[in-house]
Amino acid sequence: VDNQTAQLNAALKAFNLSLFDNLVSTAESPQWMYIRNYNYPNKVITANGTYIDGLLKCQDKNTSVNAELWRFEYNADKTAVKIISKVQPTGAIKNVGQSASALLKLVSGASDFQITRTAFGFSIGVKGGGTYDNLHCDGTYRLVGWSAEVAASSWIFENYVPTISTDGDWNTPSSWDIG
Protein backbone atom coordinates (compact mmCIF):
# COMPACT_ATOMS: atom_id res chain seq x y z
CA VAL A 1 0.00 0.00 0.00
CA ASP A 2 2.84 2.43 0.82
CA ASN A 3 4.38 1.80 -2.61
CA GLN A 4 1.03 2.44 -4.33
CA THR A 5 0.59 5.64 -2.33
CA ALA A 6 4.09 6.79 -3.32
CA GLN A 7 3.37 6.02 -6.98
CA LEU A 8 0.07 7.92 -6.83
CA ASN A 9 1.75 10.92 -5.17
CA ALA A 10 4.49 10.89 -7.84
CA ALA A 11 1.86 10.77 -10.59
CA LEU A 12 -0.07 13.68 -9.04
CA LYS A 13 3.14 15.71 -8.71
CA ALA A 14 3.99 15.02 -12.36
CA PHE A 15 0.44 16.00 -13.39
CA ASN A 16 0.65 19.29 -11.49
CA LEU A 17 4.08 20.07 -12.97
CA SER A 18 2.80 19.40 -16.49
CA LEU A 19 -0.26 21.54 -15.71
CA PHE A 20 2.03 24.38 -14.64
CA ASP A 21 4.01 23.97 -17.87
CA ASN A 22 0.81 24.49 -19.86
CA LEU A 23 -0.20 27.55 -17.85
CA VAL A 24 2.99 29.49 -17.24
CA SER A 25 4.32 32.28 -19.38
CA THR A 26 6.74 35.17 -19.06
CA ALA A 27 6.47 38.93 -19.26
CA GLU A 28 8.30 38.77 -22.59
CA SER A 29 5.90 36.20 -24.04
CA PRO A 30 2.68 36.39 -22.01
CA GLN A 31 -0.21 33.96 -22.23
CA TRP A 32 -3.23 35.84 -20.87
CA MET A 33 -6.10 33.96 -19.28
CA TYR A 34 -9.46 34.53 -17.76
CA ILE A 35 -9.84 32.79 -14.40
CA ARG A 36 -13.54 31.90 -14.42
CA ASN A 37 -15.44 30.63 -11.39
CA TYR A 38 -17.16 27.26 -11.70
CA ASN A 39 -20.05 28.13 -9.37
CA TYR A 40 -20.71 31.53 -10.96
CA PRO A 41 -19.97 30.75 -14.64
CA ASN A 42 -20.05 34.35 -15.87
CA LYS A 43 -17.77 35.64 -13.09
CA VAL A 44 -14.02 36.04 -13.51
CA ILE A 45 -11.29 37.35 -11.22
CA THR A 46 -10.70 41.01 -11.97
CA ALA A 47 -8.38 43.85 -11.06
CA ASN A 48 -10.89 46.35 -12.48
CA GLY A 49 -10.44 49.62 -10.57
CA THR A 50 -7.85 48.00 -8.29
CA TYR A 51 -4.41 49.37 -7.60
CA ILE A 52 -1.53 47.83 -5.66
CA ASP A 53 -2.75 46.91 -2.13
CA GLY A 54 -6.37 47.08 -3.31
CA LEU A 55 -9.03 44.40 -2.88
CA LEU A 56 -9.74 41.96 -5.70
CA LYS A 57 -13.16 40.67 -6.69
CA CYS A 58 -15.06 38.69 -9.29
CA GLN A 59 -17.14 40.44 -11.94
CA ASP A 60 -19.04 39.58 -15.11
CA LYS A 61 -16.70 38.46 -17.86
CA ASN A 62 -16.01 41.06 -20.58
CA THR A 63 -16.88 44.03 -18.35
CA SER A 64 -13.32 45.32 -18.55
CA VAL A 65 -11.28 42.79 -20.55
CA ASN A 66 -7.71 43.86 -19.75
CA ALA A 67 -8.50 43.95 -16.02
CA GLU A 68 -9.84 40.39 -16.25
CA LEU A 69 -6.69 38.90 -17.76
CA TRP A 70 -3.99 37.15 -15.76
CA ARG A 71 -0.88 35.16 -16.48
CA PHE A 72 0.83 32.48 -14.45
CA GLU A 73 4.57 32.71 -13.81
CA TYR A 74 6.73 30.21 -11.95
CA ASN A 75 8.01 31.15 -8.51
CA ALA A 76 11.78 31.04 -7.96
CA ASP A 77 12.04 27.26 -7.41
CA LYS A 78 9.34 26.31 -9.95
CA THR A 79 7.15 24.58 -7.35
CA ALA A 80 4.28 27.05 -7.59
CA VAL A 81 3.05 30.03 -9.60
CA LYS A 82 2.40 33.73 -9.16
CA ILE A 83 -0.79 35.04 -10.77
CA ILE A 84 0.06 38.35 -12.43
CA SER A 85 -2.35 41.05 -13.63
CA LYS A 86 -2.36 42.39 -17.18
CA VAL A 87 -3.78 45.79 -16.26
CA GLN A 88 -1.37 46.16 -13.30
CA PRO A 89 1.72 44.25 -14.57
CA THR A 90 3.68 44.81 -11.34
CA GLY A 91 0.78 43.33 -9.37
CA ALA A 92 -0.15 39.77 -8.49
CA ILE A 93 -2.75 38.04 -6.30
CA LYS A 94 -2.17 37.60 -2.56
CA ASN A 95 -4.56 35.42 -0.58
CA VAL A 96 -4.73 36.63 3.01
CA GLY A 97 -6.73 33.82 4.61
CA GLN A 98 -10.16 32.63 5.64
CA SER A 99 -13.00 34.94 4.52
CA ALA A 100 -10.55 37.83 4.02
CA SER A 101 -10.52 39.65 0.68
CA ALA A 102 -7.58 38.82 -1.58
CA LEU A 103 -5.30 41.71 -2.48
CA LEU A 104 -3.37 42.91 -5.49
CA LYS A 105 0.21 43.15 -4.22
CA LEU A 106 3.58 43.77 -5.82
CA VAL A 107 4.73 40.49 -7.37
CA SER A 108 7.45 40.09 -4.74
CA GLY A 109 4.82 40.12 -1.96
CA ALA A 110 2.21 38.00 -3.71
CA SER A 111 1.23 34.43 -2.84
CA ASP A 112 2.84 31.38 -4.38
CA PHE A 113 -0.07 29.24 -5.57
CA GLN A 114 -0.39 25.56 -6.30
CA ILE A 115 -3.10 24.51 -8.71
CA THR A 116 -4.88 21.24 -8.09
CA ARG A 117 -7.57 19.36 -10.03
CA THR A 118 -10.98 19.25 -8.30
CA ALA A 119 -14.30 17.67 -9.20
CA PHE A 120 -15.39 21.02 -10.66
CA GLY A 121 -12.22 22.39 -12.27
CA PHE A 122 -9.10 23.53 -10.41
CA SER A 123 -8.44 24.89 -6.95
CA ILE A 124 -5.91 27.68 -6.53
CA GLY A 125 -4.34 27.32 -3.09
CA VAL A 126 -1.45 28.99 -1.35
CA LYS A 127 1.65 26.77 -1.41
CA GLY A 128 1.95 25.22 2.03
CA GLY A 129 -1.31 26.88 3.09
CA GLY A 130 -4.10 25.53 5.24
CA THR A 131 -7.70 24.52 4.63
CA TYR A 132 -8.96 28.06 4.04
CA ASP A 133 -6.12 29.30 1.84
CA ASN A 134 -7.83 28.63 -1.52
CA LEU A 135 -9.21 31.39 -3.73
CA HIS A 136 -13.01 31.48 -3.54
CA CYS A 137 -15.71 33.69 -5.07
CA ASP A 138 -18.23 34.33 -2.29
CA GLY A 139 -21.94 35.16 -2.66
CA THR A 140 -21.19 38.89 -2.93
CA TYR A 141 -18.45 38.18 -5.54
CA ARG A 142 -15.57 39.05 -3.25
CA LEU A 143 -12.39 37.05 -3.86
CA VAL A 144 -11.63 35.49 -0.48
CA GLY A 145 -9.84 32.55 1.12
CA TRP A 146 -11.95 29.43 1.70
CA SER A 147 -12.00 25.63 1.48
CA ALA A 148 -11.15 23.97 -1.85
CA GLU A 149 -14.00 21.49 -1.55
CA VAL A 150 -16.85 23.77 -2.64
CA ALA A 151 -17.82 24.75 -6.18
CA ALA A 152 -17.19 28.48 -5.63
CA SER A 153 -13.53 27.60 -4.90
CA SER A 154 -13.13 25.90 -8.27
CA TRP A 155 -11.82 27.72 -11.31
CA ILE A 156 -11.63 27.16 -15.05
CA PHE A 157 -8.77 28.72 -17.01
CA GLU A 158 -9.65 30.19 -20.39
CA ASN A 159 -7.05 31.42 -22.85
CA TYR A 160 -7.59 34.90 -24.18
CA VAL A 161 -7.19 34.98 -27.93
CA PRO A 162 -7.68 38.34 -29.62
CA THR A 163 -9.42 38.20 -32.96
CA ILE A 164 -9.81 40.80 -35.69
CA SER A 165 -13.27 42.30 -35.85
CA THR A 166 -14.78 43.80 -38.99
CA ASP A 167 -13.35 47.20 -38.06
CA GLY A 168 -9.80 45.79 -37.63
CA ASP A 169 -9.93 46.04 -33.82
CA TRP A 170 -7.87 43.33 -32.01
CA ASN A 171 -9.76 43.67 -28.71
CA THR A 172 -12.49 41.11 -29.30
CA PRO A 173 -11.84 38.10 -27.07
CA SER A 174 -12.49 34.45 -27.71
CA SER A 175 -11.46 31.68 -25.37
CA TRP A 176 -11.65 28.01 -24.55
CA ASP A 177 -11.24 25.87 -21.49
CA ILE A 178 -7.87 24.28 -20.92
CA GLY A 179 -9.06 22.45 -17.83
Structural class: mainly beta
Distance between the termini: 30 Å
Proportion of helical residues: 10-25%
Report the count of strand segments.
Answer: 14
> In DSSP terms, counting alpha (H) and pi (I) runs of 4 or more, how many helices?
1
Q: Looking at the structure, what is the overall shape?
A: globular
Low-confidence stretches: 172-179
Main sheet overview: 2 strands, antiparallel
Order of helices and strands: HEEEEEEEEEEEEEE
Strand content: 25-35%
Query: What's the alpha carbon Rg, rounded to whole Å?
Result: 16 Å
Q: Give the neighbour order of strands across the main sheet.
A: 1-12
> Which whole number gives the mean pLDDT?
85
Report on this structure.
The protein contains 1 helix and 14 strands; from the N terminus they run αββββββββββββββ. The protein is globular and about 50 Å long. The protein has 179 residues and is mainly β. The longest helix has 22 residues, at 2-23. The protein has one helix spanning 2-23; strands at 33-37, 43-46, 57-60, 70-74, 81-85, 91-94, 103-106, 113-117, 122-126, 134-137, 143-146, 155-159, 161-163, 172-174. 12% of the residues lie in helices and 34% in strands.
What keyword list fits this structure?
single chain, 179 residues, mainly beta, two-stranded antiparallel sheet, globular, disordered C terminus
